[in-house]
Amino acid sequence: MANDNLPDFISALLKTNQEACITDVRLVQTHISFVLLAGEFVYKFKKPVDFGFLDFSTLEKRQHCCEQELLLNRRLCPDIYLDLVTVTKEGDSYTLNGSGEVMEYAVKMARMPEEKMMVNLIQAGTLDHIHIDTIVDKLTPFYQQADRTEEIDGYGTAESVAVNVLENFEQTKGFINNGAITQEQFDKISSWSKDFLTQEDLFTRRIKDGNIRDCHGDLYSANICLADKVYIYDCIEFNRRFRYCDKASDIGFLAMDLDFHGLQDLSSYCIDQFCQHSGDNTLKEMLNFYKCYRAYVRGKIGLFTAADPAVDEAVKANCLEAAAKYFALAESYTN
């Protein structure tokens, strides 16, 4: 990883840093985060970016979102989300929770075993129906207990859902024919999605049946660990309109992710089990729509990450390759 475009405090913390009290540090980047893996802990920093739907542009906004991340993620795994920490600067040295000027905030988490991460189980070919059962068992009561208010219900209307869906198309128009998405794919996916959104009665029925909740918002294998128990982490904290959603959008994301990895059998099993355990009899009517939406979002994130000057060429190439696969998957749901 070339560090030329990294913030000074990240570059400093990547070194063996006894003053900062972290050693053996490895950096992982997303389009919105710097994540430092350090021994038994993880430190997650928010990049100073503003994508419109997400605004981490000021230190105060990053602090608030770190605080929200702790609060919201403790709903599903309170023993992982440990604390809010500061990066302070004293002279030329950066220290965690020091007495100098606060330069940045981070969420401190307990580090989970990487071999038990769901994405690694998928790659190892060991993810099975029992794992899916444990996830469904964790999620069913979570959604039953998740907040439902008149305000939250409002995010389930076709008009509100359209804001998120159409925003994706607006934000990716400039990337058409860059190697990840073609004009034909863009036109087909956007046209099909807009047509589905005209079926307002489907969305209204989902609201009346109590299916719009304060959900997770980012439910896929990268955010699930299947260790001594199920840990589902890294929910959306930065924009409630991505988290206030139909359960079908959340579960559809997980099913789409399994499809992406070629696990269509487990994907179908996951949906069947969830519908059976939750008593949700109309989720499947919405499934392909939300799968398409979620696949497109993942493709968009790949484009954004590839365009970040802080990532190296290998990461950029991998992101574009994955984005192309996501856009192809999104298209497949329109057939």
SSE order and pairing:
Blueprint: H1 8-14, E1 25-29, E2 33-38, E3 41-46, H2 59-73, E4 81-90, E5 93-96, E6 101-110, H3 118-124, H4 129-145, H5 150-154, H6 158-172, H7 183-197, H8 200-208, E7 212-214, E8 224-226, E9 230-232, H9 240-243, E10 244-246, H10 247-260, H11 264-278, H12 283-306, H13 313-332
Antiparallel strand pairs: 1-2, 2-3, 3-6, 4-5, 4-6, 7-10, 8-9
Helix pairs in contact: 4-11, 6-7, 6-12, 10-11, 10-12, 12-13
Overall outline: globular
The number of distinct β-strands equals 10
Structural class, please?
A: alpha+beta
Q: What is the CATH topology of the largest domain?
A: Aminoglycoside 3'-phosphotransferase, Chain: A, domain 2
Average pLDDT taken over every residue: 94
Order of helices and strands: HEEEHEEEHHHHHHEEEHEHHHH
What is the name of the CATH class of the largest domain? Alpha Beta
Nearest-angstrom radius of gyration?
Answer: 20 Å
Largest sheet: 6 strands, antiparallel
Q: Which architecture of the largest domain does the CATH hierarchy give at level 2? A: Alpha-Beta Complex
Strand order of the largest sheet: 1-2-3-6-4-5
Q: How many structural domains? A: 2
Q: Give unreliable regions as ranges.
A: none
Helix coverage percent = 40-55%
N- and C-termini, Cα separation: 40 Å
